[in-house]
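The instructor's notes for this session suggest beginning with a concrete chain rather than abstract definitions. Hand out the sequence below and ask the class to guess, before any prediction is shown, which regions might be ordered.
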Amino acid sequence: MNTAEKSLRHLVEKWLAPTPTVRIRVVQFGRMRADKMRYAHIEASTLTGTRAIFFFRHADGCWCVFPPQIARPSMTRYPLSA
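After discussion, reveal the predicted structure:
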């Protein structure tokens, strides 16, 4: 996977399409409570309205528009030795 395609800058340009007339700003940047993963709340303002998207940083360092899956407890079955 090309990490440049998953950078926060690339995703903001892809999803919010900034132009000279579109104002982009970071509304909030922080960590989620459950797993301490980073998120960014980005907003694009135009004359016709405002759009906002949350971006989430995954464990591999890439940013995505969906949150990373939370690690959950799991059970593993081991064969019994005879």
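Then share the key points. The CA atoms of residues 51 and 81 lie 59 Å apart. Strands lie at 23-31, 38-46, 49-57, 63-64.
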